[in-house]
Write a structure and sequence with these properties.
Layout lengths: L1 H9 L2 H17 L6 H9 L3 H5 L1 H22 L2 H18 L6 H29 L2 H30 L3 H22 L15 H12 L2 H32 L3 H4 L1 H21 L4 H9 L1 H10 L4 H29 L5 H8 L1 H20 L4 H18 L8 H4 L1
Helix pairs in contact: 2-8, 2-9, 3-11, 5-6, 5-7, 5-10, 5-17, 5-18, 6-7, 6-9, 7-17, 8-13, 8-16, 11-16, 11-18, 11-19, 13-16, 14-16, 14-19, 15-16, 15-19, 16-17, 18-19
Length: 403
């Protein structure tokens, strides 16, 4: 209790305000997004490979947006770009109510990939602006905990609501996002000091920073390592729901407890685990966390009942708790202060690259080889991720981590 009081007073009120918005918005959106592949599959009546190919639209726009978003939040400020992304996502969720054709789902997936990085990168940049380097990993852990309070509540509510009406779930997601957007508009202060026009880089100069980032060996290797790990994560978050319903008859109501278990673990364990991992070098911590991912893939591949799949999520979540906040802080510490948005935005590419590879590859393997093939392939990719993280030890530490 004393530790929690200390944490509360350590961070500014702005931080806790943003955390409240994240909790509400993630509750609304996770009522729906873990079940989107089931929704699309049942509406379109297409094979697994066709349904999972929709994620390619999301990943293409997400790749572009993640590159652009960092420059936008560094140039125009964090607040306005976040609001634009949040309201855009609210419109996308409402759009799913009226989607009946493959191309309509494709357009909405494309727009979702475009809007979501804007407020995610803005949030990460604000945290880095507010806090010194030695406080960031713990703060990113708290942000993840806040999001996952929503993830704990959302799927359970979604499992109950969506069995009756998906439209209610989409409206709930939109309302929750609008609440977060209004909270930012009226109460959140801009954390980036906006320079005079004659002192600011133009956007073309800002994009040159991306080229500089790609010359940073530690950053490129970090991006590659995390992307490999995230390929495993996309299988759990995008494919598992359909895999369980089509092959084992596990419906939305029962499946909802699997993502909820992930969220509850983050809520109750993230702060304590981050406190421990902060005592060790990031390059020693991250390979350990990554090792949980291939193990989770193998558990899914060889499970045939609900409890096996639940255990697989528990195993993967331990890896997530160890690696995710440590990796975000590592990247934030690599970046110069006025380039954090771009570094964090470019780092956000890992999810969209993984999303382009993981679900589509899984659909192809499942349709053409066997239902276990995607998970066995995921285990191989997870091992490669561990090896890639281990290679970071041979590179220099981030400058802000040293000081």
């Amino acid at each position: 209790m004393q530790r929690m009081k200390s944490i509360f007073h350590r961070y500014p009120f702005q931080f806790w305000l943003m955390l409240l918005g994240l909790i509400v918005s993630s509750t609304g959106t996770t009522m729906v997004w873990p079940f989107l592949t089931i929704y699309a599959s049942e509406k379109l009546l297409l094979p697994m490979a066709a349904v999972t190919s929709l994620m390619t639209f999301n990943s293409i726009s997400g790749l572009i947006a993640s590159i652009v978003a960092g420059s936008l939040v560094d140039y125009f400020g964090r607040k306005g770009i976040m609001v634009f992304g949040i309201f855009g996502m609210a419109i996308v969720y409402l759009g799913y109510i009226f989607a009946n054709e493959f191309w309509q789902f494709g357009v909405l997936m494309f727009l979702s990939g475009m809007f979501s990085p804007l407020y995610r990168i803005g949030t990460d940049a604000i945290v880095a602006d507010m806090l010194p380097p030695d406080e960031r990993a713990q703060a990113y852990g708290l942000v993840r905990m806040g999001r996952n309070i929503g993830v704990a509540l959302g799927p359970i509510l979604g499992g109950l609501v969506l069995s009756r009406s998906y439209s209610i779930g989409f409206v709930s997601a939109a309302v929750a996002l609008i609440f977060f957007g209004l909270l930012i508009v009226f109460f959140l202060k801009e954390t980036l000091e906006i320079k005079r026009d004659d002192q600011r880089e133009n956007l073309l100069d800002q994009f040159k920073v991306l080229g500089q980032a790609l010359k940073n060996k530690a950053f490129v290797r970090m991006l590659s390592s995390f992307t490999l790990m995230e390929i495993c994560a996309t299988l759990m978050w995008v494919i598992l729901a359909v895999y369980l319903k089509q092959n084992f008859g596990i419906d939305e109501t029962l499946y909802s407890w699997i993502p909820t278990t992930n969220a509850l673990m983050v809520i109750f364990l993230q702060v304590a685990i981050t406190h421990r991992t902060n005592q060790h070098e990031a390059t020693k911590v991250m390979p350990i966390g990554a090792a949980f991912y291939p193990l989770a893939m193998l558990i899914v591949a060889y499970s045939s009942n609900y409890w096996g799949f639940l255990i697989a999520m528990v195993v993967m979540t331990f890896g997530e708790l160890i690696t995710a906040p440590t990796a975000t802080a590592y990247v934030a510490n690599l970046a110069p202060p006025d380039q954090r948005g771009r570094y964090l935005g470019f780092f956000g590419l890992n999810w969209f690259i993984a999303l382009a590879i993981g679900p589509m590859g899984a659909g192809f393997l499942s349709d053409n080889i066997s239902i276990q093939a995607p998970w066995l392939a995921g285990a191989v990719v997870g091992v490669l991720s561990v090896l890639a993280f281990m290679s970071l030890k041979r590179l220099p530490k981030p400058v802000e981590e040293i000081v």
